[in-house]
Amino acid sequence: xxxxxxxxxxxxxxxxxxxxxxxxxxxxxxxxxxxxxxxxxxxxxxxxxxxxxxxxxxxxxxxxxxxxxxxxxxxxxxxxxxxxxxxxxxxxxxxxxxxxxxxxxxxxxxxxxxxxxxxxxxxxxxxxxxxxxxxxxxxxxxxxxxxxxxxxxxxxxxxxxxxxxxxxxxxxxxxxxxxxxxxxxxxxxxxxxxxxxxxxxxxxxxxxxxxxxxxxxxxxxxxxxxxxxxxxxxxxxxxxxxxxxxxxxxxxxxxxxxxxxxxxxxxxxxxxxxxxxxxxxxxxxxxxxxxxxxxxxxxxxxxxxxxxxxxxxxxxxxxxxxxxxxxxxxxxxxxxxxxxxxxxxxxxxxxxxxxxxxxxxxxxxxxxxxxxxxxxxxxxxxxxxxxxxxxxxxxxxxxxxxxxxxxxxxxxxxxxxxxxxxxxxxxxxxxxxxxxxxxxxxxxxxxxxxxxxxxxxxxxxxxxxxxxxxxxxxxxxxxxxxxxxxxxxxxxxxxxxxxxxxxxxxxxxxxxxxxxxxxxxxxxxxxxxxxxxxxxxxxxxxxxxxxxxxxxxxxxxxxxxxxxxxxxxxxxxxxxxxxxxxxxxxxxxxxxxxxxxxxxxxxxxxxxxxxxxxxxxxxxxxxxxxxxxxxxxxxxxxxxxxxxxxxxxxxxxxx
Length: 655
What we know:
CATH superfamily of the domain at 3-377: Endonuclease/exonuclease/phosphatase
Region (Disordered): 378-407, 420-515
CATH topology of the domain at 3-377: Deoxyribonuclease I, Chain A
GO molecular function, one term: DNA binding
Oligomer: single chain
GO cellular component, one term: nucleus
InterPro entries: AP_endonuc_1, AP_endonuclease_F1_BS, AP_endonuclease_F1_CS, Endo/exonu/phosph_ase_sf, Endo/exonuclease/phosphatase, Znf_GRF
Mean pLDDT: 77
Keywords: Hydrolase, Lyase, Magnesium, Manganese, Metal-binding, Nucleus, Zinc, Zinc-finger
CATH architecture of the domain at 3-377: 4-Layer Sandwich
């Protein structure tokens, strides 16, 4: 397989781990393997530098570059992960304008020597807004990596949430357009990907006719908005209303997904979660993979992965062939995706190491520099040693169990030690006897010396003594009457009734039990059963020889086991014991359970709360739980959301 580049707005770097299939193995390495990607561009990490953790940075086999927001917490953020076995950048920068500085340096990226900078920085004349360049790069919206093959730009473009962000959004778009065009004019190939927050045309959004009608806007006006005008002018085949803007006369990028799927409808990458619009595919395409003309023929596939959950966006990818044509020569893609000398003719010449990390790599942050991941800490690397085994006693003692010749010595030594342990009065006598018995043991003098110094013989006997004492039978080791059983935690406790001799009515057939007392005792020992269920055990003839049925009925009706009673009296101790099961049944009957109304599909409605400002803000209501359909509206007689709507205050149904 070739080299795959995947872009994904994850809406929080740990957010995908709450969904399948990512929740099975919550590691970034497993996530990237599932994506089958070699470069992963992530938007909306929503973290700051202090939130970085080992599992984010020290991903085995991967390098990572972050651009995080400077001031806002839990906002924006872009990261690019690169698989070290397939690619390695030669330069890396944060920000779109080049005004930020590398770590531990006060020199801006744009002011570095020519051989250390990526180039193509926007000029003041190309930025028409009054927004400061440092402010544009303060929100963590761009990471740029340069490979020998092309320049990779991963961006998260601002969205128009309100009028206060319009100027900032347009300033960022202008800087992005200028940077891409400047790089292309320098002769470099460009691959731009990420969440641009721009709908290119009417094919890339659902429900556009209704939206235009609602906003009293024409399709040409929709296409001519500043953000869409920028996108349609920078890509080939874009629809531009009127004359192109100055400096944007020629397109420079290709929309790869549309090149491979030019007429595919419903190719959306983002859905509104509040409306549960994803199952009905009522969304928009705002995530793109774009490339310059010089590398367009390198790509063999580009598509969306709408079936992968984990965010309100889905991953979008583009795949480069194993071998590409460059300057008329076909070469392996790995040769031009790594620094010179790392690959040659598709064969690796040297392994990737920490020295290949660029200054902006997160692996070089002081908290993570020269550290291993937790997984690597448990893997002991074997290092060859040329030192003879007989050089030091420590080497002999360490390798004695690994040698086939010394394995028999170890067994013999163990046997001798066990055989002479009973006759030796001290550890030294024990070792002297074992050495005299087996000459081979005397040749390995370091072994008995080390064993004699170990405190194992002194600590093991007390443990064995404790174990022996624990195994001795005792009348106190069995479970006593106060010990709880497993059923004691599940079954409701029933008191053992004590019968007062004064309450007995006289002997019957020589027995000292009255019929009422026997029946009452049987009832008290009977497990509680809910109303309407049959008791598990009935009275047997052997329990009571003679008894009066009327007396039992009269007595049991007057006991505390009536239908409306929730407590049982312990006559001996005077304590009240409440049955939780009977309490629950009683309260359920008293209060009742509120029944959720049904929608037109005959299914339970979902309860929501109004958040829109107004007189109904805070009120709860019921509506159909099904997702919106492709039309984006509530429908009748379809499989999508129906028109059921009920205020909670107007519904009083109870079970």
